[in-house]
Write a structure and sequence with these properties.
Layout: E1 2-4, E2 11-13, E3 16-18, H1 26-30, E4 34-42, E5 44-46, E6 55-57, H2 66-74, E7 78-83, E8 91-92, E9 95-96, H3 97-102, E10 113-130, H4 131-143, H5 151-164, E11 169-179, H6 185-195, E12 200-210, E13 213-214
Parallel strand pairs: 2-12
Antiparallel strand pairs: 1-3, 4-11, 4-12, 5-6, 7-10, 8-9, 10-11, 12-13
Helix pairs in contact: 4-5
Length: about 220
């Protein structure tokens, strides 16, 4: 048995598991288009591009107004080179990038990129979270993760970022994406923050389909 396509530690949704002769067709399954629903918190950045990283406040105010968000999202439609997040499983020099990053040696390697395509991207909704909302939601999410993902360090950095922030509220943006295989949603969110003139990181990812394999909503 094997699986086709990884999911981030905090991601959920469709994961294709292959058995028997279908294992030989793994590459065919890996090439299928994917759809995601993504949630992004505007105003923070982290080294993993999501809430499991070491978090910092945004260095610039930027704009989280709806017209700016809509324009920024649409700018991603098309084919472009996407740089791999440094906390990813892409192998460089015989070991994954995240291992280089964890060892503090990421500057010793060249971060690779790959061509990806965004076929469609659509704004779903936005909401405003207070500092307490952010910390409560992040704490609950981090508690769901097991394994060595620096959970304690991440939570400590969140507490520090919230306490030192001069903002009282933060925008959370929800959007859907249809894309080619290998597209990192964390990378899209990171670049969304830049497009808005500030920072952003991923709060949640739900893969809703891989090819014709779709989550059936009850």
């Amino acid at each position: 048995m094997t699986y086709a396509g990884r999911l981030d530690p905090l991601a959920e949704g469709v994961l294709i598991v292959l058995a028997g002769d279908e294992v030989k067709r793994k590459d065919d399954y890996l090439c299928l288009r994917k759809r995601y629903q993504v949630s992004a918190i505007i105003g923070f950045s982290s080294d993993t591009y999501d809430i499991l990283g070491l978090v910092e406040n945004a260095k610039a105010e930027g704009s989280a107004q709806l017209p700016s968000i809509l324009g920024a999202l649409q700018s991603f439609v098309g084919t472009f080179e996407q740089t791999y997040p440094i906390f990813s499983s892409k192998t460089v020099g015989g070991k994954p990038l995240f291992q280089w990053a964890r060892e503090g040696r990421i500057t010793e390697v060249v971060i690779p990129s790959r061509q990806v395509s965004i076929y469609s991207i659509a704004f779903m909704r936005s909401e405003v979270w207070t500092k307490e909302d952010v910390l409560n939601n992040v704490t609950q999410k981090i508690a769901m993760v097991s394994g060595d993902f620096r959970q304690e360090e991440a939570l400590e950095s969140w507490c520090s970022a919230i306490l030192t922030s001069d903002r009282d509220s933060f925008s959370v943006v929800h959007f859907s994406v249809e894309c080619s295989s290998g597209t990192y949603m964390r990378g899209i969110v990171h670049d969304l923050g830049r497009a808005l003139g500030t920072s952003a990181l991923t709060f949640g990812i739900k893969r809703t389909s891989v090819g014709n394999y779709v989550i059936v909503e009850e």
